[in-house]
Amino acid sequence: MLTTLSxxxxxxxxxxxxxxxxxxxxxxxxxxxxxxxxxxxxxxxxASLALLADEIIDPALEVELLENAEVYNVVLARDEVRxxxxxxxxxGTIAATYDLRESTSLDLIAEAMVTLxxxxxxxxxxxxxxxxxxxDVIEITMPTAPMRRAMIDYGIRILFLSAIISIVAASxxxxxxxxxxxxxxxxxxxxxxxxxxxxxxxxxVIEPAASVAELREAEVALQTMQTxxxxxxxxxxxxxxxxxxxxxxSHDLRNVLTTAQLFADRLETSTDPAVARMTPKLLGSIRRAxxxxxxxxxxxxxxxxxxxxSHVSLATVIHDVIDGERLAAGDLDISFAEDVPAGMSIRAxxxxxxxxxxxxxxxxxQAIAAGPGQGEIAIRAVETAExxxxxxxxxxxxxxxRAREHLFQPFHSSGRGGTGLGLTIASDLVRGxxxxxxxxxxxxxxxxxxxxxxxxxxxxxxxx
Length: 464
Known about the structure:
The chain is an alpha+beta fold. It has three domains: 5-170, no CATH class; 200-238; 303-463, Histidine kinase-like ATPase, C-terminal domain (Heat Shock Protein 90, 2-Layer Sandwich). Helices cover 56% and strands 17% of the residues. It has helices at residues 5-53, 59-69, 105-117, 145-197, 213-269, 275-295, 314-329, 350-370, 401-405, 422-432, 460-463, and strands at 73-78, 81-86, 94-99, 123-128, 137-143, 310-313, 333-339, 345-348, 374-383, 387-394, 436-443, 446-454. The strands form three sheets. A five-stranded mixed β-sheet has the order 2-1-5-4-3. Strands 7-9-10-12-11 form a five-stranded mixed β-sheet. The radius of gyration is 52 Å and the shape is rod-shaped. It starts with a helix and ends with a helix. The model is unreliable at 297-302 and 458-464 (pLDDT under 50). One of its GO terms (molecular function) is ATP binding.
């Protein structure tokens, strides 16, 4: 309870109410003592009037009058003459004299506290003004024990009543605070926690609804901050997506243009009749570069553009990829193998399929070049009733553990100098076809990736 706002408020309220009751209790007890003494003076005055009516009074009646007034002696001053009206014997001496005519509020409070803390029975003298001007001064002697008992009884009643008032007031304030303060604050905290879990979601921005002016100001300030933060996060995310898109485009553009440059270099120095055969490939590489550059006009999205599906000759695409990579391999002892059924046609975007296979074959070539320096890269394809399956395997050294942990994540390369975007691009493009790209196996004997393209149209979210 001490750790909650409502609990602390309950305790503080109880303490403050009790303090207020104590501040009321002390003057109340002092006033009770004053009233008690005044009542004894009035009783004594009434007893004296009986004596004035009959100057000779029976001793038994005198004792009864004194007992009824709860005093020992009564002295009444009239016409500047001081007369002992009633008297009786008592033990002890007079301990103190109190003149109610001259007592201030502080004097009454101090005298009441002294009476409460001083035990035993003492005899005191009390002086006051007679009621209705029935004389000049009236003076009595009386015991303190009955008065002290009456004061204690009165004090207990006051404290009990104060405790009840404190509990009721504290409870009402406790529930009021919980309803008007704690509940809105808890709602504010829940809104902050909800927003923190997904700050990009504009639906989680708080809507000011508090009826308390201060809390509403806090909600308005929080709403402004959340709105600005959401906008900043969206802008930052958009810039990050833009950077990712540009990096992907630059990656593929560099690779395609590198292939085109190799063809161009060959054309400049060769008189081989094979130039006529290579010229269409050069034109195809340049056309791909142009298409990728045109993609920069729409990189407001981080995703690749949707594929333009058509029936494609898989063997033709694979042959183009291998021709480019064979040329890029140069003097390396790398062999390329194709195992594609004759006339096999698949439904895909030819440009994106080229990029997927190009990235996989290029990664395999780089792995072999960085490892043993010789090996084989094989592309195989099979067709089932539900899908087309294409595997790209190599005899390289396999993927290192770090690359396996961050497979298909951007900017996590295999440590061989790449940008770490090849597999990310390939995975995105395959997923855009409704298919999947997965690592089948990797180890010292090589690595195998598999592309699965469904024959039926599959929604992207279902594929994911």
